[in-house]
Fold each of these.
Amino acid sequence: MDPAPATPRWNLERPYLTGRFHQTAAAAQAPGSKPFSLDSFSRGAGASTGSVIGSFAASVQELLVIDDLLSALVGIEGRYISIKRVRGKEGYVVFQIDSSMDLALQERTREIFPLCEDYVLVSQFVESRSHFKNGLVNHALAAALRAFLLDYQAMVAQLEHQFRLGRLSLQGLWFFCQRMTSSLNALAVLVEKATSNNTSGSATLNLLQSQAKAMGGDSAVRSLLEKMTEYASAAYLRMLERWVYEGVIDDPYGEFFIAENKSLQKESLTQDYDAKYWQQRYSLKEGIPSFLTNVAAIILTTGKYLNVMRECGHNVQVSLENSKLMSFGSNHQYLECIKSAYDFASGELLTLMKDKYDLIGKLRSLKRYLLLDQGDFLVHFMDIAREELTKKPEEISAEKLQSLLDIALRSTAAASDPTHEELICCVERSSLLKKLATLKDLDCACPADKLAAADVDQSMQLSITGLETFCLSNKVQWPLSLVISRKALTKYQLIFRLLFHCKHVSRQLCSAWQIQQVFRSVKILGTPILRSSILCRSMLKFVNSLLHYLTFEVLEPNWHLMHDRLQTARSIDEVIQIHDFFLQKCLKECLLLSPELLVKVEKLKALCLQYATSIQLLMPSIEVTNSENKSKSGKSRSRTNKSQDRDQQLKLTSENVIMSESILKFEAAFNSELQSLAPTLSNSSHAEPYLTHLAQCILGVRIDQ
């Protein structure tokens, strides 16, 4: 907000132009001296004689006091009526009469003094509130009061004319002033409260409305105050119109109830996890006008929607036909205008997001790649990037991974999808559990220190590589970043990392299983090889069941539910809410918000990886030669001799003590962890029904059994 222009010095230094001279003169006069007035020039003869009004006859006194009262009615001292400033109250004055005047005339004169004092008070308010710094609402109110005072001064001029014609008595003057007394007194009360509270903007409008309601018994005064409210609100209405019809804050003096924080930029949505752009770029201030309290949120949202479209280069303005905000009347027509503006802005922005920026298509792309709805590219990528992903996170080249990802995408069905070019490779520096511990707003059911402790235990068993920290990201442009913010993308990445690691564990177990297939010719039951095959099948069942649960029991149903709700959404805020609810529900049902269960699942996966690695190291790699590849030279040995050698080698391998002990250790550890998962699921399933489906998928049993 730009600083208000300074008030010209002449407006402060030349009091005769502003009606402030009586205060200046009263303050500057010497004690006991005659009060200064303009009449000292025009009526100097009378003043210089030193005569007191009591020395004249009563009829003459009446004429003299009427002459002074006509001046006092417009804030000017007379020969026998003086003005005294009230100490400690700026703008407050009292009128005093010469004590030698006839008592009856004094009483009647004092009955008119409140009107004179109210005029001075209102006049001073008009002058002081006309300064730039007081804001547009006070300027408008001061202009309305000035117009009222012009009517009042016209009345005084008419009374003076009647006095010059000899047709006005003191009683008649008092009678004709009655019409203005109640109105001017109500305005004086108003400006007194406005001055003492130093109101501006919304506070002034609220004061006007409350004063009008308080005058319910006097229809004329109430009508006057309502008229003042209408005039004062005109400037506020123009600010409101520009906001709800154009999305522009035109508020040079900081009176509007919506504030703009220009330090928050839209680029933060894609960079900062805790970005508050949408919530705090425009926000409600204190001091909302009472008649707008119930629709303040709608007004704020309407302008925000128009702002988004304007920043997209989509110039749109609400049609003003039959929608111009004229006044805050009792017919509530202004509420209908605001509601119409909101409906228009909301529908226009939603159409823009869905049609021009293809919001639904972008969400489908995230589902396809980050939720692994289309997994053929991932299989190819994991094959060609295996060497790079087995390195430590700090040793991995993100550029190389990006190149390999591009190759994988162009070699699969994803090549026909233009959105695949928006995928970005990322390598985190911490495990999934540590990442969850750093995100404080995910509402985890377990403290971060427990997550970190569990992760330390796991890292002692298995070193972290790119396979545990790799994830995908996506380029999101404005205005889609309102829905798919950095926070939303982070949640997608958490789910991706869980799925990706499960896929990796499954591939490793499949490799171990393939190695064991060459031992089928061993007919000795009870050997470690047979136990290893059974254990491998159990581990594969666990990992594949977990993947099935995550994909078909959690992600797929929740996605379709979100998609159906988005079709009926009526505003972008509703879209954001639906999308955030989808992500939160997926995180919860994927166990990412249940650290106790997630830690157990991670331990089971770690056991599976260690088992698969051990099998590949302990079991010899035996190359079985097919009959099609026999050498035609005849130098190779016969098939019978080769088969006998192989059987002998296999039997030696099955008797390997180290392998036997390792398999038994893995079997015991895996079965123990798997069995400990059942009571944990059972205890939590009453509060979280989705755990019943998880138990059925992983353990093959019903919780209630």
Amino acid sequence: MSMLRRRKGPEPPPPEKTHENEIEDDNDNKKKNKSPSTEESTKKRGGRFSCVDNCCWFIGCVCSIWWLLLFSYNAMPASFPQYVTEAITGPLPDPPGLKLHKEGLIAKHPVVFVPGIVTGGLELWEGKSCADGLFRKRLWGGTFGEVYKRPLCWVEHMSLNNETGLDPDGIRVRPVTGLVAADYFAPGYFVWAVLIANLARIGYEEKTMYMAAYDWRISFQNTEVRDQTLSRIKSNIEVMVATNGGKKVVVIPHSMGVLYFLHFMKWVEAPAPMGGGGGSDWCAKHIKAVMNIGGPFLGVPKAVSGLFSSEAKDVAVARAIAPGVLDKDLFRLQTLQHVMRMTRTWDSTMSMIPKGGDTIWGGLDWSPEEGNVCNLKKRKSNSSQVVDQNGTVAEGCTTKKAHYGRMVSFGKDVADAPPSAIERIDFRDAFKGHNLANSTCDDVWTEYHDMGFAGIKAVADYKVYTAGSIIDLLHFVAPKMMKRGDAHFSHGIAENLDDPLYDHYKYWSNPLETKLPNAPDMEIFSMYGVGIPTERSYVYKLTPTSECYIPFQIDTSAESGKEEEGSCLKGGVYTADGDETVPVLSAGYMCAKGWRGKTRFNPSGIKTYNREYDHAPPSNLLEGRGTQSGAHVDIMGNFALIEDVIRVAAGATGEELGGDQVHSDIFKWSEKIKLKL
């Protein structure tokens, strides 16, 4: 059998390569050429996202959620947030203006607002080259954008001349005018806005409301010298009275505005050129009532710590946590030094140094607030009191004695020691020495740079300072600042108010060195929050030496021990009752005793009332800053306070409001102050 062999046909041509085939071939080649290590790393990744991928996804999710919420907020009905709040907290009470409108109250007396320190807006009218593009832009208030964009330029423009207390060469910063000057301090953070809105509900409008804006940095008399602000307030009040049928104004000062308007009442009646020349009956003709809110009549201890070390309670805690940021030259951001350099040029801050010395604030071995209970809940549950116009108070609970009269103590042991155990070396005539760092600290110069180690040691060796020696302390550490301050403010107690010495304007903002106007039909209210721990005295220590430093700081390690319950010491700060800024003693004493009835400070017997508002924080975040707050600024949204203001503006008297409304021990403490009345 023959073997047949089939001839091979021609091989078919290779298929044409498409783009897809080329990609597959490339991938096959890559797989063949891939090293084992590459394969292992691929297996290890297992398709996971990298860190960058995760970050991108996270940012994308956050942005998406943000835009979704923003869209939902703008798309929802205006009443929806209120509906949610009421569903959680229950029905909300009517705003005071709406409530009183339903009762039939209508606008009657024109209203004048006098803002306090830092709450009024300031804008630039002339500046250095670093402030180009900021003409009439707010440097204070609003968004504070320039603080972040050009901080040193901002500090330079917010500072005043260290010799005159007025404008530096080439810089003009002026107060914003109108109701917008202080309705909001920053976007969403109201000051006067809630009160203005509620007054509008009973018929008030801009022609019957006036914001007496002023440059709160400069001394009170200098607001007239530079801006004629006092004359403008006088003219506006006269116009408001004349155009509203002769109805007198209701004046509502807040915080330092209380002292500013006290100065105004003396200025307006004093003869020219020092005064406004309105005559001794100007206030009687034009003012129905002065409703002071959170007034620091007798000063605030917080002013001492601010001028001494640029600190308050919260700043001291931050300084202890992050000293490299606030104290040292970190990226040239010597924060506290710049703050001190700037604020020590603001003469107005010296108006709030405690007044009356040891007679008012206490000494080494006593204070009016002896027995104060720091735990406010415990105080309310364990003590009860009844207060009448004569200051009769039932005894409440007592606790371990706190030496509030020792306003500054160097060391907790000194703050607690009996007076006889404290060895002190007088600092007043001590040699200050010379600080070699002064030549390298021009950009953050403070007066501490003129003090050597001998002067710093002398301050610490005196151990403890009461309100009477605080003035001498500030003269020693800041002589330039206090030289300007002495020309515009006084902090003592007048022996004889008829002495022509007290006709000078430097005494007009101190209620212990001036008389109220002769206006027996006028009423004065002191309205303030209580129930919040408020700075009263401090424990200090020396700061470790470094270049361009502030040598003193609050000792945040000083705390009350378990065996010292009730001593109110926390983070180096002793606290007493108040509104978080102004202690009850300062806000309430003058209306409770100093001006109560006919006294040498109130010769015409103007009626005075203490209206206290017990602090109740918001129960949840939806309530914002709350409607029952007693905090120094948040009280401006307190419904009870707003209702009192509206009723008086609509014609009510203090007696019709119910007279005094007191929750604190102010009458009891006032009786401990032995002041000739």
Amino acid sequence: MYLALGTGVLYGVDRQFYASSITRSARTFGLGLIVALDYKINFRPNPLLAASIPALHARNAERLADLLQSNGGLYLKIGQAIAMQSAVLPPEFQKMFAKMFDDAPQNDWKDVEQVIREDFGKSPEEVFGVSFSGDPNKGVMERTARASASVAQVHWARLQDGTEVAVKIQKREIAHQVGWDLWSFKVVTKIYTYWFDLPLYSLVPFITERLMLETDFVNEADNAERMGQLVAGEPRLRDKVYVPKVYRDLSSTRVMTAEWIEGVRLWDKEHLTKPWEGRWRQGSPGCHGAALDPPKHLEVADFVRSNLIDERLKPDRDWWKGKDGQGGLGLSLKDVMTTMIDLFSAQMFLWGWVHCDPHPGNIFIRRLPSGKPELVLIDHGLYVHMKPDFRHQYCLFWKSLMTFDNKTLGEIVQSWGINNADIFASATLMRPYTGGDNSTSAEIRKGLTGKEQQERAYEMQQKMRKGIKDILADEKKWPQELIFIGRNLRIVQGNNQFLGSPVNRIKITGNWASRSLVDSPDLSLSQRFKNLGNHLLFKFVLFGSDVYFYAAKVKQFFGAGGGMEDDMELQMKKIAKDFGVELNHGVFEG
């Protein structure tokens, strides 16, 4: 009775004052222990308490996915980080973790209002100059969120001066939960590192620091403004990329107000490519900061009724689709993807300031009056900074990959504490690296001929474990920025593949890597001049990549393939099969 009473009191206090943080942590530790024991007992060629290794993976993937979705908040953010890397996880995990990209439930308006009052000391009406009773001299704001994610939700508003804004408001419970959630993540990773002998814990401080920064909207506003300045200063991008303006006077640690963006999502191929129904030399709504069409006028009675039943107030602005609604932006997918790869390559190789969450939900496409695409980049919470020396090394690493300069490649990865250049090169290119000694392929096939399927699958996954240890061989030397840079590369590759591989991604990326060693202001004039000669030679070498790309395009035209990315994915799948995993880029389909 005392135990039941004590547990009930603790649960009530936890729910009321700590946003269920203690309950969530206890749930995490309990399930973490179950999963760890399950793998300790059953991860063998013939599991004791499972039909097979895939069955073992399936039940634990389901357990983990249920835990992350039940806990919500930052757990969903961690789940999305895992999902981004699900291409190298067993297929059972891939299927479960695709759900991490579903819209999260949104908080009630009273919770939203409370966050605004706590941060500004005023009501939403006072902060944004809006009215919920139909005052014609005030702005308007929707109480129902337009989008809801793991940490925040976004509301549309029109300020008194007619400016339309996106108000991103952190969910109220996050502030109470974040410390507990990251502590639980650290403890579980520490235990797994010791129990399974995998060098994972050394990465945790850097990952948790990045996740903490994602909950600080002042940091996100800083990142957005810095990226806007970098883009504006680069002639190759300033007329092709747009970063929405942030309104600092309407922003705080948990509220960020930015310019409202009208656009088409990156993966909406239909509306990107359908014929343009607007006028000649006319852009889509809001392109390059142009004023948006004014919203419809509402009578006071209509306005009050709309707010009471949570109707949408924002105008649709779909005139560009034509009278029959069958139109689109009339854009070339090649131009769209070229701009995207140019942007993220400049971030990695030229500026060293990398947006690490470029999934399709964070990229809008608009049409410029010239008929060319404009890429709008939002959600600037997750960035990594590359120091100049590391950035120059990374440029040289990519050049070495493209030219099969194995001596330089080996020297660079050794300085990063990586013991296996071959496997790391393949992981970076996301295609088999054929310029090395093929030690990876030889090693994973050694001693496996003639063994039963289950025993072979077990040994392959053990070799995958060894491959991870080789990549993270020297934890003190390993550049932790590579975690998020690799995530960026994988998402960009997935975007290009989904759109039908309209561009030679590897050539564009390699060209930026080489050219950035010429343009980098951190290098001396003599170094930059020397790099210019090397770059001209490198441009000739890239011709071989073009041959591969156009051969794939010819096959695609005759229905014999899906394009360059699909061909590379097929090659990687063959290698991955030897590791006992299946590659699958469709991690955004939830």
